[in-house]
Amino acid sequence: MRDDGFTLIEALVTISVIAIALMSILTLMSGTFNLNQRADSQSQATQLAQLQFDALKRVTPTTMPKNGQEEEDVTFNGREFRVRRSYCVTVAYCTSDQRSVQLDVFQGKTLLFTGETVFTELRVK
Prior knowledge:
Blueprint: H1 8-57, E1 69-76, E2 79-87, E3 98-107, E4 110-120
Antiparallel strand pairs: 1-2, 2-3, 3-4
């Protein structure tokens, strides 16, 4: 009797090993895709926050609220975000002519960006 070719058991073992290897690769690719999506969302949230801070630069600080929060839903580059502005989080920076503003950007319930700055009005003499 000649031993040419593979037996049925050898073929099944080979197929099983290949299937396990492919499943591992697909799992790795899926994880990488999710990581890239998260990084892209964080990048978009950071850009949105920068635009929000830039818009606040054009507002006179004395017209900003002295406390409280404002929230709005924003679509930015095809993605849905919720932007929360909190005023005078750092009380020491809230005076008659300046305001502390904290900006949080969420996607769903996930916080992607948080930042705080102080706005003041400069006067030229």
